[in-house]
Write a structure and sequence with these properties.
There is one protein chain. This protein is mainly α. The relative contact order is 0.11. It has helices spanning 2-27, 35-53, 56-59, 62-73, 80-90, 94-114, 118-134, 141-154, 163-166, 186-208, 223-244. It has one domain (33-244). It is built from eleven helices and no strands. The longest helix has 26 residues, at 2-27.
Length: 254
């Protein structure tokens, strides 16, 4: 009996040691300091989805339609193409769009939280936050936008996440998060970062053309100004990450 107890204790201690070594190894990876932000964003999307699921007015499209009509009436939508999109597409299909948002936020939250196809989920989150900003609701979407760009570039989903396993088979960083540089995915990561740099800079330029005011006290509420700043920061962040990429073997040694 005592031998069985000792054997059970040894087995339990071995498992504990493996778990501790796994956590230590994961937290030693590059970008591990961003893990709390990943958990924060994942839980944030799950909370947003849960709030909508229990609200029948939201699922029926009533709240979303009222929100869009209020933003249009208050002239908070500064981009002409987006005003047309709201009028011709979003409002006539408010109930369908409400369901898409609920399901999308639920899937994004779960995926980011467990690190499963994290980069797809982050791109979805960025797209949704971008739409909120375009609709004239920058708070807190602008804050989330910056965080999700950092998580996407940092490959945080591969830290204590399923993407660490999926990344062995799926090479493109647009689908799964990757940490560090591997020769078999270097070029795809390099191209993705350069493409993100160019796209973000182009969107910043377009947004700048629609800025309504440069008054420091009022510009924080101007969606065009916010998008100009956010896309400029995203472009710089992606370009710096692009410059830091070096194929294995090319780094100088001392």
């Amino acid at each position: 009996m005592n031998a069985e107890i000792r054997e059970s204790n040894v087995s339990s201690q071995t498992i504990d040691d493996r778990v501790l070594r796994f956590i230590k190894r994961e937290l030693s990876k590059e970008g591990a300091y961003l893990l709390p932000l990943r958990l924060f964003i994942g839980m944030g999307w799950l909370r947003a989805s849960a709030e909508k699921i229990v609200d029948p007015d939201w699922l029926g499209g009533t709240i979303l339609a009222a929100f869009l009509e209020e933003k249009l009436a208050g002239e908070h939508v500064v981009f002409p193409f987006y005003r047309t999109l709201i009028t011709d597409v979003f409002l006539p299909n408010a109930s369908v769009l409400s369901w898409i948002m609920v399901i999308g936020q639920l899937l994004m939250g779960a995926a980011i939280l467990v690190g499963l196809f994290t980069n797809v989920a982050l791109l979805g989150g960025l797209f949704m936050n971008l739409n909120f900003i375009l609709a004239g609701a920058p708070n807190p979407s602008a804050f989330y936008f910056v965080i999700q760009v950092a998580l996407f570039i940092g490959g945080t989903g591969a830290i204590i996440g399923v993407d660490a396993l999926l990344g062995r088979r799926i090479r493109t960083p647009l689908f799964v998060a990757k940490v560090g540089i591997r020769s078999w995915h270097f070029r795809s990561k390099e191209r993705a970062l350069l493409g993100l740099t160019i796209l973000s800079f182009s969107l910043a330029t377009y947004s700048l053309a629609h800025v309504q005011t440069y008054d420091p006290g009022l510009s924080v509420e101007d969606p065009a100004m916010l998008l100009t700043v956010l896309f400029t920061l995203s472009s710089l962040q992606a370009f710096i990450s692009y410059l830091r990429q070096q194929p294995p073997g090319n780094a100088s040694t001392s």
